[in-house]
Queue: 3 jobs
Job 1
Amino acid sequence: MLRFRAQVGLLSLLVLCASPALWSCNTAIDTSAYDAAVQASKDHQAKYQIIDDTIIQGYLKRHNYTAADYQRTASGLYLVTLTAGTGTQVTAGKQISVKYTGKYVSKAVENTVFDTSDNAPSKSFDYTVGITSLIEGWKEGVSLMRQGDRKLLLIPSYLAYGPSGYGPIPPDTPILFDMQIVTVSP
């Protein structure tokens, strides 16, 4: 029994000695590096909102589109209606079929195609709205379309692939999709 009390006493002494170390775990974590990275990301996006808008406005001007020809959303996405559809509105949960061609917006490479539905077996991209993971500019643009619509979606980089880029699309690159909604499920 004496041996047991000695062990309990030794254990109590260890806990007492370790307590300050355990209490120190309750101190605030220094998040200054994280906070600085978040601020740098916000600053980067604010900078590219201006740059991308200038590039997109240049594209519109080069192609003789006026303010009457396009819609600019609050996010910075531009839509130019090429053909107005009269069919079903695209909404979440609908199965849709889209024909598209993706190009760059910058003058030096604006005729370069980086992706097209022509490469798909059905010559279209079929998916369920709201379920398939897509870039923000595509999701927003499609939600503003209906069956039969053909529109140019001019997408700023921060609504596309951002500072990372993706595949053939360099970082911070505004892009466009010439997009036609072929079918929308009833």
Note: The CA atoms of residues 60 and 79 lie 11 Å apart.
Job 2
Amino acid sequence: MGSIVGGFLLPHDPMMFTHPDAPDAPVRDRVHEAYREISRRLAALDPTTVVIIGTDHYILFGPGCLPQLLIATGDLDGPVERLPGLARGPLPDNAPLARHIAGHGHRHGVDWAVAPTFTADHSVVIPYHLVAEPLGLPVIPVYLACGVEPLLPLARAVRAGEAIREAVEAAGEDERVAVIGSGGISHWVGTAEMGRIDSGFDRMVLDRVAAGDTAALA
């Protein structure tokens, strides 16, 4: 039987790689130390695999096909973008567990799209590179459609998280899985509000995450 041993939320801002000198040094150092702290906490959980839940940016998918829920179940590489200091290359996978999560979901009402071969974008590769790669962990990428319409309804996002937990707990192997949610909060990509920060909203979301209040989040 497997178990979810921990969960983390973190941003995946590509400007850390494209414009590393943009913030003042104390701000930059504080941000990178936060990632190192997450990596230390992750190591303390002794996980066997990390599931990284990323977001579509209209880079991997487009108007021809925009899956709302996708799990990568086989050979992985990335990132698909060209980012300074982050070369594209293979990523270690846990294909048996990924296929189990997909199949378990299909049998229990979760309509995962499945990618047996997959090139991840920065929303998976940046957190992997900064947090999980130093620990040599295999990764299972999950993508949610939350960048362009039709957006994934929030209740379905909650159900996807529940389905991952249920599948891991039903796994035959003794998997210890950590989950990383990769994204932003007050984060209006591609709109007039882009760049504005709503600290009150951010704190409200984080408080509900810390309390495990998925009903309020949805």
Note: The helical segments are 15-18, 25-44, 95-107, 122-132, 154-169, 199-210, 214-217.
Job 3
Amino acid sequence: MNPAPNLVLVGPTGAGKTSIGKRVAERFGLEFIDVDHFIVERAGASIPALFEHIGEAGFRQHETAALNELLAQSGKLISTGAGAVLDAGNRQRMRQAGFVVYLRVSVEAQLKRLGRCTNRPLLQQPDRERVLREMALVREPLYTEIADLTVDTDGLPPPEATARLTHLLAQRWQRTESFA
């Protein structure tokens, strides 16, 4: 058992962090928080608008502030943005304040799941596959570095992935009320 006050989901875009996360949060009686939605509510602007006005660096500052606030609490299932792991401080805080689950997905599955998605600024390029592969090269080692548990979501509909993750969490994670 690895005790922690929160569950933290990391992984690439399209891995299922939101769809699986909501179900797992309900199962464990946790409050589900999607960091990107949290940022949008606080900033009063969409992610594409934030990227347009303050750039990726400005967005990452909002992301770090949101993670700091959320990880200081307990009883949360925090679904991070795919790039949250790029910041070493974010990775350290996630490990300290959460049991980190890496939802792994192949680029092929990402392409199918994301379809014609238009609300992810970094994917608004002609060759999405190339962009996703480049992101994976940089981010995959970072996801692996901080993961307490890795679950592949390729080929699994959200209810099946949720059942698998719930079973594994019951064996490997113990919720605490505060930091150990």
Note: Strands lie at 2-4, 7-10, 31-34, 76-79, 99-104, 149-152, 173-175.
